[in-house]
Amino acid sequence: MKKTKNIFWVLSIFVLTLYSCSSDNDDSVKLLKKVVETSEEGTSETTLFTYNGTEIVRIEGAQKRTDFTYTDGLITKIVTLSKTNQLLETIEYSYLVGKLVEVESLGNYRINYIHNSDKTVSYQKFTIGSGNQEVKEFHGILYFENENLIKEERTLDNTAVGVTSNYSISFDYDSNKNPLYNILGYKKLLDHMETISSNNSLINTVIATTTNGDQVLSLANFYKSSFQYDSENYPTEQVSETALFANGNRGYLKTEYFY
């Protein structure tokens, strides 16, 4: 009986040690808890992030909230609701051997992904119209390097006859840590563009080219951000003069990050 008690005591200590190590590992992962965005006019908006371990549960702002669902460590559904609990959008994610193969915004659009042997990813986007008719909107290729999305090339498929429209965006990064990268499964979300990268994008270069017969029109735009970092190389502040707002306009925006 005494021997049995001793074994039970040793096992109890072992289990407590494992639990302590697991808790320490979770605590050592730095997760983004709050973002405060301030416009040039001084208007501020706060966004809060809620987690279960390293799984993102909810992102909540002043006007809407976004809820996340996981299956086996992968994000499989994102539901966006207004503050009055009105459903704004439901997006479902499908995977094959841990790689994203389809994104579907229910009733709105669908994106298919093919992971190529050279580590690029090809994709096609279809919009969903009346009667669930699908129309191919565009297709393209995503390029990666050092766990960063470095370039996207896109060709529109719904242009007029004889017109070709191409679009590319290139990303230049710092060597510091993206505050979203530690979220479990987030880097798999290819539809989230450069925010899935391991580092922070400093310059986005966008080139749009339209060809109509012998006429070629090209436009290039550059979007820059500057960062401040903490002692662990996570950003604490980002300033952009050309941030994209929800209404489609661009302008000054200061973003503060809290962990």
Automatic annotation (TrEMBL):
Taxonomic superkingdom? Bacteria
Q: What is this protein called?
A: DUF4595 domain-containing protein
Annotated source species: Flavobacterium yafengii
